[in-house]
Protein backbone atom coordinates (compact mmCIF):
# COMPACT_ATOMS: atom_id res chain seq x y z
CA UNK A 1 0.00 0.00 0.00
CA UNK A 2 1.35 3.41 -0.98
CA UNK A 3 2.59 5.66 1.77
CA UNK A 4 0.41 8.76 2.20
CA UNK A 5 2.42 11.93 2.72
CA UNK A 6 0.32 14.73 4.21
CA UNK A 7 1.31 18.33 3.65
CA UNK A 8 -1.46 19.94 5.65
CA UNK A 9 0.33 22.70 7.49
CA UNK A 10 -0.45 23.98 10.95
CA UNK A 11 -1.05 27.70 11.42
CA UNK A 12 1.51 29.89 13.10
CA UNK A 13 1.44 33.36 14.57
CA UNK A 14 1.23 35.99 11.82
CA UNK A 15 -0.58 39.29 11.44
CA UNK A 16 -3.54 38.45 9.19
CA UNK A 17 -4.73 41.11 6.80
CA UNK A 18 -5.61 41.65 3.14
CA UNK A 19 -2.85 41.31 0.54
CA UNK A 20 -3.00 43.38 -2.63
CA UNK A 21 -0.95 41.84 -5.44
CA UNK A 22 1.13 43.58 -8.10
CA UNK A 23 -1.27 43.38 -11.06
CA UNK A 24 0.16 45.56 -13.78
CA UNK A 25 2.29 43.38 -16.07
CA UNK A 26 1.40 43.65 -19.77
CA UNK A 27 1.01 40.28 -21.54
CA UNK A 28 -0.91 38.43 -24.22
CA UNK A 29 -1.08 37.96 -28.00
CA UNK A 30 -4.84 38.52 -27.76
CA UNK A 31 -5.28 41.56 -25.52
CA UNK A 32 -3.09 42.97 -24.19
CA UNK A 33 -4.05 42.01 -20.64
CA UNK A 34 -2.96 42.94 -17.17
CA UNK A 35 -1.23 40.07 -15.39
CA UNK A 36 0.19 39.45 -11.92
CA UNK A 37 3.84 39.21 -10.97
CA UNK A 38 4.25 36.58 -8.25
CA UNK A 39 7.26 35.25 -6.36
CA UNK A 40 7.68 31.49 -5.99
CA UNK A 41 10.21 28.88 -4.83
CA UNK A 42 13.47 29.22 -2.93
CA UNK A 43 15.75 30.72 -4.08
CA UNK A 44 13.01 33.09 -5.17
CA UNK A 45 12.07 33.79 -8.77
CA UNK A 46 9.21 35.71 -10.33
CA UNK A 47 6.50 34.27 -12.58
CA UNK A 48 3.68 35.99 -14.48
CA UNK A 49 0.14 34.70 -13.95
CA UNK A 50 -3.52 35.50 -14.59
CA UNK A 51 -6.11 35.03 -11.82
CA UNK A 52 -8.18 31.90 -12.34
CA UNK A 53 -10.53 29.43 -10.70
CA UNK A 54 -8.44 26.37 -11.44
CA UNK A 55 -8.34 24.10 -8.42
CA UNK A 56 -4.56 24.65 -8.34
CA UNK A 57 -2.35 27.38 -9.65
CA UNK A 58 -0.46 26.70 -12.89
CA UNK A 59 3.12 27.62 -13.72
CA UNK A 60 4.69 27.58 -17.18
CA UNK A 61 7.89 25.58 -17.63
CA UNK A 62 10.51 27.79 -19.27
CA UNK A 63 11.65 24.79 -21.32
CA UNK A 64 8.27 24.41 -23.08
CA UNK A 65 9.28 26.29 -26.23
CA UNK A 66 12.80 24.89 -26.31
CA UNK A 67 11.50 21.31 -26.13
CA UNK A 68 8.91 21.88 -28.86
CA UNK A 69 10.65 23.68 -31.72
CA UNK A 70 7.47 23.65 -33.81
CA UNK A 71 5.49 25.58 -31.20
CA UNK A 72 4.61 29.22 -31.83
CA UNK A 73 5.66 30.99 -28.66
CA UNK A 74 4.81 34.59 -27.80
CA UNK A 75 8.00 36.63 -27.60
CA UNK A 76 9.71 37.73 -25.50
CA UNK A 77 8.83 35.25 -22.81
CA UNK A 78 7.49 36.56 -19.48
CA UNK A 79 8.55 35.12 -16.13
CA UNK A 80 8.35 31.32 -16.18
CA UNK A 81 9.11 28.38 -13.90
CA UNK A 82 12.64 26.98 -14.07
CA UNK A 83 12.74 24.84 -10.95
CA UNK A 84 14.91 25.61 -7.93
CA UNK A 85 17.20 24.08 -5.37
CA UNK A 86 14.37 23.59 -2.90
CA UNK A 87 12.21 22.04 -5.61
CA UNK A 88 14.93 19.54 -6.44
CA UNK A 89 14.93 18.34 -2.83
CA UNK A 90 11.24 17.37 -3.01
CA UNK A 91 11.05 16.38 -6.68
CA UNK A 92 10.01 12.87 -5.59
CA UNK A 93 6.62 14.41 -4.72
CA UNK A 94 6.05 15.51 -8.32
CA UNK A 95 3.34 13.68 -10.23
CA UNK A 96 3.81 11.80 -13.46
CA UNK A 97 2.82 13.60 -16.64
CA UNK A 98 -0.88 14.27 -17.15
CA UNK A 99 -3.04 16.21 -19.64
CA UNK A 100 -5.57 19.05 -19.34
CA UNK A 101 -8.29 16.67 -20.54
CA UNK A 102 -7.88 14.79 -17.25
CA UNK A 103 -8.88 17.77 -15.11
CA UNK A 104 -11.99 17.07 -13.06
CA UNK A 105 -12.64 20.54 -11.59
CA UNK A 106 -15.26 22.56 -13.46
CA UNK A 107 -13.05 25.51 -14.39
CA UNK A 108 -10.36 23.18 -15.68
CA UNK A 109 -12.80 21.25 -17.86
CA UNK A 110 -14.30 24.43 -19.33
CA UNK A 111 -10.93 25.98 -20.04
CA UNK A 112 -9.63 22.84 -21.71
CA UNK A 113 -12.54 22.90 -24.14
CA UNK A 114 -12.61 26.65 -24.70
CA UNK A 115 -8.92 27.17 -25.21
CA UNK A 116 -8.34 23.87 -27.00
CA UNK A 117 -5.62 22.99 -24.52
CA UNK A 118 -3.27 20.21 -25.60
CA UNK A 119 -0.01 18.95 -24.20
CA UNK A 120 1.39 17.65 -20.94
CA UNK A 121 1.85 18.93 -17.40
CA UNK A 122 2.71 17.62 -13.96
CA UNK A 123 1.95 18.59 -10.36
CA UNK A 124 4.49 19.85 -7.85
CA UNK A 125 4.63 21.13 -4.28
CA UNK A 126 6.04 24.63 -4.11
CA UNK A 127 6.16 27.95 -2.26
CA UNK A 128 4.18 31.08 -3.08
CA UNK A 129 5.34 34.28 -1.42
CA UNK A 130 2.98 37.15 -0.60
CA UNK A 131 4.76 40.50 -0.71
CA UNK A 132 3.91 44.14 -0.18
CA UNK A 133 6.06 47.25 0.36
CA UNK A 134 6.75 47.92 4.04
CA UNK A 135 5.35 44.57 5.14
CA UNK A 136 7.09 41.28 6.02
CA UNK A 137 6.65 38.59 3.39
CA UNK A 138 4.35 35.66 4.03
CA UNK A 139 5.57 32.28 2.79
CA UNK A 140 2.98 29.76 1.62
CA UNK A 141 5.06 26.58 1.71
CA UNK A 142 3.40 23.36 0.64
CA UNK A 143 1.17 24.83 -2.06
CA UNK A 144 0.04 22.57 -4.89
CA UNK A 145 0.69 23.76 -8.44
CA UNK A 146 0.48 22.33 -11.94
CA UNK A 147 3.45 22.93 -14.25
CA UNK A 148 2.78 23.16 -17.98
CA UNK A 149 5.54 21.31 -19.82
CA UNK A 150 4.07 21.61 -23.32
CA UNK A 151 0.48 22.90 -23.13
CA UNK A 152 -0.57 24.90 -26.16
CA UNK A 153 -3.67 26.99 -26.89
CA UNK A 154 -5.31 25.75 -30.09
CA UNK A 155 -7.91 27.52 -32.24
CA UNK A 156 -10.34 25.58 -34.46
CA UNK A 157 -8.76 27.03 -37.62
CA UNK A 158 -5.33 25.64 -36.87
CA UNK A 159 -3.70 28.64 -35.23
CA UNK A 160 -2.00 27.93 -31.92
CA UNK A 161 0.61 29.19 -29.52
CA UNK A 162 2.46 27.75 -26.55
CA UNK A 163 0.89 28.88 -23.29
CA UNK A 164 3.29 31.40 -21.81
CA UNK A 165 1.39 32.94 -18.87
CA UNK A 166 0.39 30.85 -15.88
CA UNK A 167 -2.63 31.05 -13.57
CA UNK A 168 -2.94 31.94 -9.91
CA UNK A 169 -5.77 29.96 -8.34
CA UNK A 170 -8.49 31.83 -6.44
CA UNK A 171 -10.36 28.56 -5.83
CA UNK A 172 -11.32 28.01 -2.21
CA UNK A 173 -14.04 25.40 -2.02
CA UNK A 174 -11.62 22.62 -1.03
CA UNK A 175 -8.43 23.19 0.93
CA UNK A 176 -6.41 20.25 -0.43
CA UNK A 177 -5.73 18.39 -3.65
CA UNK A 178 -4.37 14.86 -4.12
CA UNK A 179 -2.22 13.07 -6.69
CA UNK A 180 0.09 10.09 -7.01
CA UNK A 181 3.78 10.94 -7.11
CA UNK A 182 6.29 9.57 -9.58
CA UNK A 183 7.32 6.90 -7.08
CA UNK A 184 3.76 5.79 -6.32
CA UNK A 185 3.32 7.75 -3.10
CA UNK A 186 -0.04 9.42 -2.44
CA UNK A 187 0.50 13.17 -2.04
CA UNK A 188 -1.92 15.60 -0.44
CA UNK A 189 -1.10 19.30 -0.78
CA UNK A 190 -2.77 22.63 -0.07
CA UNK A 191 -4.71 24.83 -2.48
CA UNK A 192 -3.41 28.37 -2.56
CA UNK A 193 -5.97 30.75 -1.01
CA UNK A 194 -7.07 28.32 1.75
CA UNK A 195 -3.37 27.86 2.53
CA UNK A 196 -2.97 31.63 2.91
CA UNK A 197 -5.76 31.58 5.49
CA UNK A 198 -4.29 28.53 7.23
CA UNK A 199 -0.96 30.31 7.55
CA UNK A 200 -2.83 33.33 8.99
CA UNK A 201 -1.69 35.55 6.14
CA UNK A 202 -5.35 36.46 5.51
CA UNK A 203 -8.39 36.27 7.77
CA UNK A 204 -10.79 34.66 5.28
CA UNK A 205 -10.75 32.52 2.15
CA UNK A 206 -11.80 35.38 -0.09
CA UNK A 207 -10.73 37.76 -2.82
CA UNK A 208 -11.73 40.94 -4.66
CA UNK A 209 -10.90 41.26 -8.37
CA UNK A 210 -11.00 43.85 -11.13
CA UNK A 211 -9.05 42.84 -14.26
CA UNK A 212 -8.72 46.40 -15.58
CA UNK A 213 -7.45 47.33 -19.03
CA UNK A 214 -3.97 47.79 -20.45
CA UNK A 215 -5.16 49.79 -23.45
CA UNK A 216 -7.19 52.17 -21.27
CA UNK A 217 -4.54 52.52 -18.57
CA UNK A 218 -6.55 50.83 -15.81
CA UNK A 219 -4.29 48.66 -13.67
CA UNK A 220 -5.63 45.37 -12.39
CA UNK A 221 -6.69 44.94 -8.77
CA UNK A 222 -6.53 41.63 -6.90
CA UNK A 223 -6.74 41.48 -3.12
CA UNK A 224 -6.61 38.23 -1.13
CA UNK A 225 -8.60 38.19 2.10
CA UNK A 226 -10.29 41.47 1.22
CA UNK A 227 -11.07 43.88 -1.58
CA UNK A 228 -10.29 47.34 -2.89
CA UNK A 229 -13.44 49.34 -2.23
CA UNK A 230 -12.45 51.94 -4.85
CA UNK A 231 -13.01 49.32 -7.58
CA UNK A 232 -16.61 48.70 -6.47
CA UNK A 233 -18.43 51.88 -7.58
CA UNK A 234 -21.98 50.54 -7.62
CA UNK A 235 -24.23 48.65 -5.21
CA UNK A 236 -22.99 45.04 -5.36
CA UNK A 237 -25.25 42.31 -6.73
CA UNK A 238 -25.13 39.44 -4.24
CA UNK A 239 -25.42 35.69 -4.75
CA UNK A 240 -25.72 33.67 -1.53
CA UNK A 241 -25.25 29.91 -1.23
CA UNK A 242 -25.31 29.72 -5.02
CA UNK A 243 -22.40 29.60 -7.43
CA UNK A 244 -24.29 31.44 -10.16
CA UNK A 245 -25.82 34.81 -10.86
CA UNK A 246 -28.83 34.94 -13.17
CA UNK A 247 -28.80 37.21 -16.20
CA UNK A 248 -32.16 38.71 -17.12
CA UNK A 249 -31.37 40.95 -20.08
CA UNK A 250 -28.70 42.42 -22.33
CA UNK A 251 -29.08 45.75 -24.09
CA UNK A 252 -27.11 48.49 -25.81
CA UNK A 253 -26.94 52.06 -24.63
CA UNK A 254 -25.12 55.36 -24.50
CA UNK A 255 -24.47 57.09 -21.19
CA UNK A 256 -24.13 60.62 -22.51
CA UNK A 257 -24.55 62.53 -25.77
CA UNK A 258 -25.90 61.32 -29.10
CA UNK A 259 -26.38 57.70 -30.08
CA UNK A 260 -24.41 55.90 -32.78
CA UNK A 261 -27.16 53.26 -32.82
CA UNK A 262 -29.54 55.42 -34.84
CA UNK A 263 -30.51 53.55 -38.00
CA UNK A 264 -28.78 50.41 -36.82
CA UNK A 265 -32.07 48.56 -36.45
CA UNK A 266 -34.83 49.87 -38.75
CA UNK A 267 -38.32 50.20 -37.30
CA UNK A 268 -39.68 47.47 -39.56
CA UNK A 269 -37.24 44.91 -38.14
CA UNK A 270 -37.35 43.31 -34.75
CA UNK A 271 -34.57 40.77 -35.21
CA UNK A 272 -31.18 41.38 -33.66
CA UNK A 273 -29.45 38.42 -35.26
CA UNK A 274 -26.75 38.57 -37.86
CA UNK A 275 -28.24 37.75 -41.24
CA UNK A 276 -25.18 35.85 -42.42
CA UNK A 277 -24.55 32.87 -40.14
CA UNK A 278 -20.82 33.33 -40.58
CA UNK A 279 -18.88 36.44 -41.54
CA UNK A 280 -15.12 36.78 -42.01
CA UNK A 281 -14.90 39.93 -39.91
CA UNK A 282 -17.00 42.10 -37.64
CA UNK A 283 -16.81 45.84 -38.31
CA UNK A 284 -16.94 48.08 -35.25
CA UNK A 285 -17.56 51.78 -35.75
CA UNK A 286 -15.04 54.19 -34.32
CA UNK A 287 -17.78 56.29 -32.62
CA UNK A 288 -18.71 53.27 -30.49
CA UNK A 289 -15.26 52.87 -28.99
CA UNK A 290 -14.46 56.56 -28.59
CA UNK A 291 -17.73 57.61 -26.93
CA UNK A 292 -19.64 56.37 -23.83
CA UNK A 293 -21.56 53.62 -25.66
CA UNK A 294 -21.89 50.41 -23.70
CA UNK A 295 -23.30 46.91 -23.46
CA UNK A 296 -25.54 46.53 -20.42
CA UNK A 297 -25.81 43.20 -18.58
CA UNK A 298 -28.81 43.11 -16.23
CA UNK A 299 -28.67 40.54 -13.43
CA UNK A 300 -31.45 39.53 -11.06
CA UNK A 301 -30.71 40.78 -7.58
CA UNK A 302 -32.51 37.91 -5.86
CA UNK A 303 -32.65 34.52 -7.53
CA UNK A 304 -34.09 34.15 -11.03
CA UNK A 305 -36.82 36.81 -11.11
CA UNK A 306 -37.80 40.22 -9.80
CA UNK A 307 -35.74 43.38 -9.81
CA UNK A 308 -32.51 43.64 -11.77
CA UNK A 309 -29.28 45.62 -11.54
CA UNK A 310 -26.98 46.34 -14.46
CA UNK A 311 -23.27 46.19 -15.17
CA UNK A 312 -22.36 48.39 -18.13
CA UNK A 313 -19.27 47.56 -20.18
CA UNK A 314 -18.11 50.37 -22.50
CA UNK A 315 -17.27 49.34 -26.06
CA UNK A 316 -13.86 50.93 -25.54
CA UNK A 317 -12.92 47.89 -23.41
CA UNK A 318 -14.00 45.45 -26.12
CA UNK A 319 -11.69 46.70 -28.85
CA UNK A 320 -8.76 44.32 -28.38
CA UNK A 321 -5.87 43.26 -30.60
CA UNK A 322 -4.39 40.03 -31.91
CA UNK A 323 -0.61 40.00 -32.27
CA UNK A 324 2.19 37.50 -32.90
CA UNK A 325 2.07 34.49 -33.03
CA UNK A 326 -1.64 34.56 -33.96
CA UNK A 327 -1.23 37.10 -36.77
CA UNK A 328 1.69 38.74 -38.53
CA UNK A 329 0.62 42.29 -37.77
CA UNK A 330 -1.59 43.78 -35.06
CA UNK A 331 -5.25 43.07 -35.86
CA UNK A 332 -8.21 44.47 -33.88
CA UNK A 333 -10.90 41.98 -32.89
CA UNK A 334 -14.12 41.83 -30.91
CA UNK A 335 -13.87 39.31 -28.03
CA UNK A 336 -16.79 36.95 -28.53
CA UNK A 337 -17.19 33.29 -29.32
CA UNK A 338 -20.11 30.90 -29.97
CA UNK A 339 -21.38 28.65 -27.21
CA UNK A 340 -23.91 25.82 -27.14
CA UNK A 341 -25.50 25.61 -23.67
CA UNK A 342 -27.59 22.62 -24.75
CA UNK A 343 -24.53 20.37 -24.51
CA UNK A 344 -24.24 20.62 -20.74
CA UNK A 345 -25.98 21.52 -17.53
CA UNK A 346 -23.70 24.48 -16.84
CA UNK A 347 -24.43 28.18 -17.32
CA UNK A 348 -26.43 29.45 -20.29
CA UNK A 349 -24.28 32.55 -20.45
CA UNK A 350 -20.58 32.77 -19.76
CA UNK A 351 -18.68 36.01 -19.27
CA UNK A 352 -14.91 35.94 -19.38
CA UNK A 353 -11.93 38.18 -18.77
CA UNK A 354 -13.10 40.82 -21.25
CA UNK A 355 -16.24 41.36 -19.13
CA UNK A 356 -14.16 41.69 -15.96
CA UNK A 357 -12.30 44.63 -17.48
CA UNK A 358 -15.34 46.69 -16.52
CA UNK A 359 -16.81 44.65 -13.67
CA UNK A 360 -15.72 44.01 -10.09
CA UNK A 361 -16.02 40.46 -8.70
CA UNK A 362 -15.56 39.29 -5.11
CA UNK A 363 -16.10 35.94 -3.42
CA UNK A 364 -16.08 34.77 0.18
CA UNK A 365 -15.69 31.00 0.14
CA UNK A 366 -16.22 30.84 3.92
CA UNK A 367 -19.71 32.40 3.84
CA UNK A 368 -20.48 31.07 0.32
CA UNK A 369 -21.24 34.57 -0.93
CA UNK A 370 -20.36 36.27 -4.22
CA UNK A 371 -20.62 39.89 -5.29
CA UNK A 372 -20.63 41.57 -8.69
CA UNK A 373 -20.49 45.32 -9.22
CA UNK A 374 -19.72 48.06 -11.70
CA UNK A 375 -15.99 48.83 -11.88
CA UNK A 376 -14.47 52.21 -12.71
CA UNK A 377 -12.62 53.41 -15.78
CA UNK A 378 -9.28 55.24 -16.05
CA UNK A 379 -10.21 57.91 -13.47
CA UNK A 380 -10.46 55.47 -10.57
CA UNK A 381 -9.93 56.57 -6.98
CA UNK A 382 -6.88 55.70 -4.85
CA UNK A 383 -6.73 52.20 -3.39
CA UNK A 384 -9.00 51.66 -0.38
CA UNK A 385 -8.42 48.10 0.87
CA UNK A 386 -10.77 46.49 3.39
CA UNK A 387 -10.75 43.02 4.92
CA UNK A 388 -13.43 40.42 4.25
CA UNK A 389 -14.18 38.46 7.42
CA UNK A 390 -15.14 34.76 7.30
CA UNK A 391 -18.78 35.56 8.17
CA UNK A 392 -19.11 38.51 5.75
CA UNK A 393 -22.23 38.33 3.54
CA UNK A 394 -22.57 42.01 2.59
CA UNK A 395 -20.04 44.20 0.82
CA UNK A 396 -19.85 47.98 1.05
CA UNK A 397 -19.33 49.90 -2.18
CA UNK A 398 -16.97 52.83 -2.62
CA UNK A 399 -17.69 55.81 -0.40
CA UNK A 400 -18.08 57.86 -3.55
CA UNK A 401 -20.44 55.83 -5.73
CA UNK A 402 -20.76 57.40 -9.15
CA UNK A 403 -21.99 56.66 -12.68
CA UNK A 404 -19.37 54.62 -14.52
CA UNK A 405 -19.06 57.15 -17.35
CA UNK A 406 -17.80 59.84 -14.98
CA UNK A 407 -14.68 57.70 -14.49
CA UNK A 408 -14.13 57.87 -18.26
CA UNK A 409 -14.31 61.65 -18.60
CA UNK A 410 -11.53 62.96 -20.81
CA UNK A 411 -11.17 59.53 -22.46
CA UNK A 412 -14.59 58.97 -24.03
CA UNK A 413 -16.14 61.90 -25.88
CA UNK A 414 -19.97 62.09 -26.14
CA UNK A 415 -21.31 62.32 -29.68
CA UNK A 416 -23.25 65.37 -30.78
CA UNK A 417 -26.99 64.77 -30.52
CA UNK A 418 -28.94 64.83 -33.78
CA UNK A 419 -32.51 65.97 -34.41
CA UNK A 420 -33.76 62.39 -34.71
CA UNK A 421 -31.96 61.18 -31.59
CA UNK A 422 -35.28 60.81 -29.80
CA UNK A 423 -36.40 58.14 -32.26
CA UNK A 424 -35.81 54.97 -30.29
CA UNK A 425 -34.04 54.64 -27.00
CA UNK A 426 -30.44 53.41 -27.07
CA UNK A 427 -31.27 51.24 -24.06
CA UNK A 428 -34.22 49.62 -25.80
CA UNK A 429 -34.28 45.84 -25.54
CA UNK A 430 -33.85 44.29 -28.97
CA UNK A 431 -34.54 40.59 -28.51
CA UNK A 432 -33.27 40.02 -25.01
CA UNK A 433 -32.80 36.75 -23.17
CA UNK A 434 -34.97 34.01 -21.85
CA UNK A 435 -35.86 34.72 -18.24
CA UNK A 436 -33.34 33.66 -15.64
CA UNK A 437 -30.43 32.57 -17.82
CA UNK A 438 -27.79 31.12 -15.53
CA UNK A 439 -24.62 33.20 -15.85
CA UNK A 440 -21.08 32.21 -14.98
CA UNK A 441 -18.09 34.47 -14.56
CA UNK A 442 -14.96 32.88 -16.02
CA UNK A 443 -12.13 34.50 -14.11
CA UNK A 444 -9.20 32.85 -15.86
CA UNK A 445 -10.72 31.21 -18.88
CA UNK A 446 -9.77 33.12 -21.93
CA UNK A 447 -9.12 32.75 -25.57
CA UNK A 448 -8.38 36.40 -25.88
CA UNK A 449 -9.94 36.64 -22.44
CA UNK A 450 -13.15 36.09 -24.30
CA UNK A 451 -16.41 37.68 -23.43
CA UNK A 452 -18.61 34.80 -24.49
CA UNK A 453 -22.40 34.79 -24.67
CA UNK A 454 -24.62 31.85 -25.51
CA UNK A 455 -27.81 33.90 -25.61
CA UNK A 456 -29.73 35.08 -28.67
CA UNK A 457 -28.18 38.51 -28.63
CA UNK A 458 -26.89 41.21 -30.91
CA UNK A 459 -23.56 40.45 -32.60
CA UNK A 460 -22.84 37.29 -30.65
CA UNK A 461 -25.14 34.55 -31.95
CA UNK A 462 -23.13 32.94 -34.71
CA UNK A 463 -22.71 29.54 -36.22
CA UNK A 464 -19.46 27.70 -35.80
CA UNK A 465 -17.00 28.91 -38.35
CA UNK A 466 -15.70 26.80 -41.20
CA UNK A 467 -12.18 26.77 -42.61
CA UNK A 468 -12.90 29.76 -44.83
CA UNK A 469 -13.46 32.02 -41.81
CA UNK A 470 -10.24 31.30 -40.00
CA UNK A 471 -7.92 34.12 -39.08
CA UNK A 472 -5.90 35.26 -42.10
CA UNK A 473 -2.90 33.09 -42.85
CA UNK A 474 -0.03 35.57 -42.77
CA UNK A 475 3.72 35.17 -42.52
CA UNK A 476 4.76 35.54 -38.91
CA UNK A 477 7.44 37.98 -37.76
CA UNK A 478 10.49 36.90 -35.86
CA UNK A 479 9.93 39.39 -33.06
CA UNK A 480 7.00 40.67 -31.07
CA UNK A 481 6.28 43.60 -28.73
CA UNK A 482 7.96 43.32 -25.37
CA UNK A 483 6.25 42.53 -22.09
CA UNK A 484 6.61 45.13 -19.40
CA UNK A 485 7.77 43.96 -15.99
CA UNK A 486 7.40 45.37 -12.47
CA UNK A 487 9.86 47.94 -11.16
CA UNK A 488 13.18 46.50 -9.98
CA UNK A 489 13.51 46.05 -6.27
CA UNK A 490 9.85 45.20 -5.70
CA UNK A 491 10.73 41.82 -4.22
CA UNK A 492 12.89 41.03 -1.24
CA UNK A 493 15.28 38.34 -0.09
CA UNK A 494 13.66 35.18 1.17
CA UNK A 495 14.30 32.95 4.15
CA UNK A 496 15.06 29.22 3.47
CA UNK A 497 12.32 27.01 3.37
CA UNK A 498 3.93 29.41 -6.62
CA UNK A 499 -21.43 29.20 -29.58
CA UNK A 500 -23.90 27.05 -31.50
CA UNK A 501 -26.57 27.04 -34.32
CA UNK A 502 -29.40 29.48 -33.44
CA UNK A 503 -33.05 28.43 -33.23
CA UNK A 504 -35.78 29.90 -35.43
CA UNK A 505 -36.23 32.61 -36.49
CA UNK A 506 -33.34 32.59 -38.92
CA UNK A 507 -30.62 35.12 -38.12
CA UNK A 508 -30.47 38.45 -39.87
CA UNK A 509 -27.76 40.98 -40.34
CA UNK A 510 -28.00 44.37 -38.71
CA UNK A 511 -28.02 47.36 -41.04
CA UNK A 512 -25.06 49.66 -40.53
CA UNK A 513 -26.68 52.91 -41.66
CA UNK A 514 -24.98 55.89 -40.17
CA UNK A 515 -21.96 53.98 -38.82
CA UNK A 516 -18.37 54.29 -39.95
CA UNK A 517 -16.03 51.31 -39.99
CA UNK A 518 -12.48 51.50 -38.75
CA UNK A 519 -10.36 52.67 -41.69
CA UNK A 520 -8.15 50.22 -43.57
CA UNK A 521 -8.56 47.36 -41.15
CA UNK A 522 -11.08 44.79 -40.05
CA UNK A 523 -12.04 43.72 -36.60
CA UNK A 524 -11.86 39.96 -36.44
CA UNK A 525 -13.82 37.61 -34.24
CA UNK A 526 -12.05 34.61 -32.75
CA UNK A 527 -12.90 31.31 -34.44
CA UNK A 528 -15.80 29.41 -32.90
CA UNK A 529 -16.08 25.96 -31.47
CA UNK A 530 -15.47 26.23 -27.76
CA UNK A 531 -16.67 27.37 -24.38
CA UNK A 532 -15.44 29.63 -21.63
CA UNK A 533 -15.00 28.97 -17.93
CA UNK A 534 -18.29 29.44 -16.13
CA UNK A 535 -17.62 29.95 -12.47
CA UNK A 536 -17.15 32.89 -10.22
UniProtKB/TrEMBL annotation:
Region (Disordered), start-end ranges: 468-536
Keyword entries, A-Z: Membrane, Signal, Transmembrane, Transmembrane helix
Signal peptide: 1-15
Record flagged with keyword Transmembrane helix: yes
Transmembrane segments: 439-460
Compositional bias segments (type: Gly residues): 527-536
Record's protein name: Peptidase A1 domain-containing protein
Species the sequence originates in: Aplosporella prunicola CBS 121167
